[in-house]
Each structure stands twice: as C-alpha cells, then as structure tokens.
Amino acid sequence: MQTQKSFDEFKNEPFTDFSKADEAEAMKAAIEQVRSELGRDYPIIINGEKIDLETKFESINPANKTELVGRFSDADSDESLTEKAIDAAAEAFKMWRSVSPEERAEYLFKVAAIIRERKHYYSAWMIFETGKTWGEADGDTAEAIDFCEFYGREMLRWAGRQPITKLEGEDNRFEYVPLGVGAIIPPWNFPLAIMAGMTLAAVVTGNTTVLKPSPDAPTIAYKFMEILDEIGLPKGVVNFVAGSGTKVGEMLVQSPKIRFVSFTGSKNVGLHIYETAAKTPKGQNWMKRVVAEMGGKDAIIVDSEADLESAAQGVVSAAFGFQGQKCSACSRLIVDEKVHADLMAKVVELTKQLKVGLPTEADTNMTAVINQKSFDNALNYIKIGRDEGGEILTGGSGDDANGFYIEPTIIDNVQPQATIEQEEIFAPVLAVIKARDFDHALEIANDTQYGLTGAVYSANEEKLEQARDEFHVGNLYLNRKCTGALVGAHPFGGFNMSGTDSKAGGREYLLQFMQGKLVSKKVAANKRDDSEAVGSAKDTTAKAF
Ligand code: NAD
Hints:
545 residues; five-stranded parallel beta sheet; 15 helices; globular; disordered C terminus; binds nicotinamide-adenine-dinucleotide
C-alpha cells in the first residue's frame, strides 16, 4: 500500500483510460467480483460494534431492479440506536479531539491509498448500486481519492502556526479546534466521493461523526466503513446508522448533542434542515452549524459567436452524463436565437448517438435514473414541459419494465419562468430557451432561485468578461461544460438556494468544521502595567474587546 507523502504537492488522481485492454479487463473482473458479492446483509455500526437488526431495507440496482445489491439493518426501527450512535461519537470525541492533526491526516492518506489500490472494485459497487457508467464511476472514485489527499494536506496547513499581528509583551497564538459531534447526511449521487469527503473533512479536523448514508446508496458507504476499520481508525469516530432521512436524519438534526450538520442534497430537505438546526433545544449549549450543499438549475449559454461544435458537445455531456443526475448538470440550454437552429441540429444529432443500456457494459453512455420516484418525477416534468408549450426534440418517454430508464429528452421552445425552466428535475431532461441577445441570455440564466454552476460558450472576450461579472453562480465555466469540477482546481459550491457555498474541495472548506481559538499569554518582557486604571489614557486595551 503506497501512501503519498504529506508534503507532496496535491495532484488530482488521473482517470482510468478504459481504451487500454488491461484496464478494461480489470474493470470487467471487478464487476464480476462485485456481482458475486451482491445481496448480502449489512449491519449498522456503533462504536465499532456491528449490530444486526431484524427490520431491513433493500438497496437495489436501478438499471435492473430485480437485482438486490444489499439488505440493510434499518435504524428507523429503533430510535434508541441513533441516540446510542450519537453518544458513542460524543465519547470518542474526548479522545479524538486531542489526536494530533498529523496523525489524523495520515488516516486520510491511508484511505486514499486503499481506494487507489482497489479503485475498480469500488467503482463497480457504484455501477450496480447507482447506475453509474464505467467512466462516471471511475470519476467518483478518483474524486474520493482527491478529497482524502486534499483534505489531509489542508489539515496540515491549518494546523500550522497561523499569521497573527505581533504585540510586544505577549505571546499570541491562534489555532483551530474541532467543534464536536457532527451529523453527516450525504446524497446518493456521488455515493463515494461526496459521502467520504463530507465524513473525512469532519474527521480530519478532529470531530467525531454519525454517518447516515442515503438509503439509495448504503452499500458503497458500508464499503467505506470497511476501509476505516482496515486502517484502524479508532472506534466511535465514524458511526454508521442506515435509515431514512425522515427518521434517523431528522433525529440527528434535532439532537442537542449534535454540534454541526453536514448535508448535501435537495433544496427542500436542505432548507428544512437549516430551519430545524437553528432551534436550540434544552441542554444544547451551542448554535448548530449547518453546511448545506443543495440543488441547481444550471444553465449553459451559447452565444451567437460560439464554436457550436464544442458547445454542442459540452451541452450533451453536461445534460446527459449520469442521466442528468448531477447537481451541476446542464438542465437549461440558453441559446442566442441567431444560432438556435444550427446548434440544435448538432445537439440532437449527438444526443441520438448516446447508447442507453446497462451500466455494466463498457460502451453504455446512459442508463437508468436512481429509483421509481425519480422516474415518475421525470415523466411528470416532461408532461408539464409539453403542457406549457414545449416541443419535444428527442426522447420524451421512459420504460420502467426492468430498470428506471428515461430517454435523453430535449424540450425546445421553453419560455423563461416555465416550470421546467425553474425547478430542478434531476433527470435527463434538458429545457432549451431562446434568447434575443447575450444580455437577454444572462438575464434568463440569473432569473432563478439557484446559483450553483453555469457555463458560457463564446469567442467574444468582452462577453466572457461580462459573464464573469454578471453570471451569478458559485462555479462559472467559460468555453467548457458546467460539470466535472476537480478537487483543488474548482472549489465547488453554490449561491442562493444552492446552499451555503461551502466550496467542497477548496481551501476554506475545512474551516467550517473548526472554530478559532486565540490564546494570549503575557510574557516577562511585558512593559504594559495591568494595574493601570481601566479606561485610562495608558490602558491600550480599553477600546478593544
Ligand atoms: P435528498 O435531499 O433527497 O437526500 C439527501 C440526504 O438527506 C439523504 O441522505 C436523505 O436520506 C437525507 N434526508 C432526507 N430527508 C431528511 C430530513 N428530513 N432530515 C435529515 N435528513 C434527511 O437528496 P438526494 O436525492 O439524495 O440527492 C440529490 C440532490 O442533491 C439534488 O437536489 C442535487 O442537486 C443535490 N446535490 C447537491 C450537491 C452540491 O454540491 N451542491 C452535490 C450532490 C447533490
């Protein structure tokens, strides 16, 4: 097992080149390995103890819905277990908070090394559990490695001596200390990268956690727990409680023993958590911190002066990659009416070339959406899009006989403010809106509750600069697609109803899991006399806090 030295400069993990025969063979072997492990039972884990419960819920393969991926002990069935998990984390915090940052970071480097070594194995779990194609699963695995390597290094940086103004006669030091017990509530769509990134950011900063995985992707989260066990992370630092958001999740957010909530998911759940966590129940001695990364209604603007070939490729990849189930996915294409016909011909042609099929097959471009609810929701939005005057250019229907397959769907002539132009669908449904000119395109793009990602294609530098100033999103991309953020290079997080702009994979991210502590020590050389009357002309501290 090769761990990268902590002082190496961070570099993004390269993606796998599956055109190489040996890599393709390795992935096929991993898929068969995982296939042979499907359908097992998984316990919850509290303070390292595996607890098997009678009541279970199932995680299935969305692309082949009769295939059982795993059966999970359901912590919804016994409320005392969530309480027990929080207590275990609180107990472990007493020890973990004083483990050195260097040692904590070393655990993350070890996690990275294990994932790197068995990357296809973890990718294969996501292929079965969440309908990721090979490339999408590989990207998720690479990002998980990146989060470990990046946050490990970041912790070392924050643990160093922090710059502070020198004052004669005092030894002043500013350091960051952990918060306490955190609830980690991830989504299913980056079930390894986001789940591991959220958990390990909290852990490396000295906190302990209760991880409630998404009920749609608990198996890959359990595999992550196995890694933590393998590297010897002390028991109780991460407790694993599988259950629903409305029971286990709700209990975690409400608990007075929880110091912070790290959430990634939909806008409505995020807002509910934000509000709930603001309450200060009896016995809670703090205001909970909430890190909430939420949805998007991300737009790509294609200007009249754009390279249409490259724009079309970017749009199709960002709209239909992982079936449009990325928070950064392009769900609105805003195109200058002068190039609308030419661009749409290219976009439609590329979309028709997409191969929809099983995610286990190497050449599949698109597969099923995550579950029945998502399938029904997508079809409902397609109907609304039609009813509100949209014109279907491709797709428009779905088939849930074997899995939850929605055709890649493009709806043209959508009006600004139409339902499908405003609400996140989280499926392969692209709304196309015509703009009179570039100003109008920006106006349409910004006219949303959200502000996560956006992209502009134009050969005109002035327009790109205008977008830099005026396009109000957390992640803006110029002449490239709006998906595919890389840790370190593209700190990720949105404005407005897209969340608290936490910038995952960025240099401020870890600060959200720590609080600053200033210790000021009077030293012998201190010339200032504490006996000076407070407020006197000589009392230099009188006008400060
Ligand atoms: P979701 O909101 O349905 O669920 C997210 C998590 O919250 C799950 O673990 C769920 O069980 C839990 N949950 C649900 N109700 C809860 C409650 N009342 N209290 C506590 N926890 C609760 O979202 P999802 O379907 O898992 O993920 C898709 C959404 O996530 C999309 O909206 C997408 O845009 C967003 N997302 C955002 C980012 C980002 O970085 N901004 C990244 C990935 C996904």
